[in-house]
Design goal:
By secondary structure, the chain is an alpha+beta fold. It is about 20% helix and about 45% strand.
């Protein structure tokens, strides 16, 4: 009602009704087109999550995988600790990765340090972003904030490598965690 009142007041007072109506009709005609164009070209569009990447599909990973390598390497800033890497499997640990066909996964690791066993777990969803980049959306992370890894599937061997800090580990046992990169190799059971 208020809109109608302002409309009548403006056009009767200044006698601009024909020109304004013509301009408004063009605006209303093209407004949906420009809105569609604006939203479809937005750079804030989420990336496309795909089952298939350049060399394989996530569904091909379905099953249980046992780790043959689980290496954490210091890749943070500052002076590297001594030692600067830890090989969990070589130290007597183990890790099992279970992947569903839809990309949901769970990783259960048993880490051995000085005769003590520590359990580590992770879960989430794996996919290819834009059909190119191997991504993991961990359940503990913010939504739509995946971590990217290098990946290789060669027969029954699956490897992922995080070249940037993707974990934390106390390499020198000083009770201060340092940033770590990971290299994991699994064999399908």
């Amino acid at each position: 009602m208020l809109r109608l009142f302002v409309y009548e007041f403006s056009f009767k007072s200044y006698d601009l009704k024909p020109k304004v109506m013509k301009a408004l009709s063009k605006l209303f005609l093209f407004a949906p087109f420009f809105a569609l164009l604006l939203f479809s070209c937005s750079s804030d569009d989420p990336e496309t999550k795909s089952d298939c990447g350049p060399n394989y599909c996530i569904s091909e990973l379905q099953g249980t995988w046992e780790a043959t390598e689980y290496t954490l390497t210091f890749c943070g800033t500052g002076n590297p600790p001594n030692p600067s890497s830890f090989e969990a499997i070589a130290a007597g640990g183990s890790a099992t990765l279970v992947i569903q066909s839809n990309g949901r996964f769970s990783l259960n690791a048993m880490i051995m340090i000085d005769g003590q066993t520590f359990q580590e777990t992770a879960s989430g969803t794996i996919y290819f972003e834009d059909g190119k980049f191997f991504a993991i959306q961990f359940d503990d992370d913010e939504p739509n904030d995946p971590t990217y890894f290098g990946d290789t599937l060669n027969g029954n061997t699956f490897s992922i490598v995080g070249g940037t800090p993707v974990a934390e580990w106390d390499f020198d046992m000083d009770e201060i965690d340092e940033e770590a990169c990971v290299a994991l190799t699994f064999v399908k059971v």
